[in-house]
Amino acid sequence: MGAEAEPSGTTWVFGYGSLIWRPDFAFVESRTGFIRDRARRFWQASTDHRGVPSRPGRVVTLVDDPGGRCFGTAYRLRDEERSAILAGLDHRERGGFSRERIPVFFDPAESTSVSALLYVADEANANYLGPAPLEEIARQIRASHGPSGPNVEYLTRLAKALREMGAEDEHVFALEAMLEGRE
């Protein structure tokens, strides 16, 4: 595994959820990429964006998936805007997410990668919901709405963005089909 030469101070942020379709920050470059050994799951409660404390929505986080690939978008930040952007992302992802650094790959052979920051929520945070039957997750998504809009919008925009980048995601697409009455 080789790493692309990164200029000193270069910062990449990898989005695998709403950051794919709504980054809300300036960037120099965006590229479709993937991370290894992780899968996207609607296992994190959202009480501040896609739900409220009395009726939390569900948003994606990452779980271990040996051999798996999770596709998303990597954004290269301007060095002079890095601190402000990361402060904004820390606020946006405050509901149980923490920063992690991970290699992001841009080619199927996994011969080039960049080191990127991403936000992930694990089972140790108070908003972690964990696994549930897809029907239960779909019902919760259907019923939830928060300051950032309906939880259904989050799911459908994520599914659309993944299709546009040519990514497969059985979990996301199965939930989308349930909510559209196709399953």
Number of domains: 1
Under CATH, the topology can be stated as Hypothetical upf0131 protein ytfp
- Biggest β-sheet strands, sense, barrel: 6 strands, mixed
Q: What is the CATH top level name?
A: Alpha Beta
CATH superfamily: Gamma-glutamyl cyclotransferase-like
Taking all Cα atoms into account, the compactness measure Rg is: 16 Å
The low-pLDDT segments are 1-6
Estimate the helix proportion, in percent: 25-40%
A few lines on this structure:
This protein has 183 residues and is α/β, with parallel strands linked by helices. It contains 5 helices and 8 strands; from the N terminus they run E-E-H-E-E-H-E-E-H-E-E-H-H.
What attributes does this structure have?
two-stranded antiparallel sheet, 6-stranded mixed beta sheet, alpha/beta, disordered N terminus, Hypothetical upf0131 protein ytfp, 183 residues
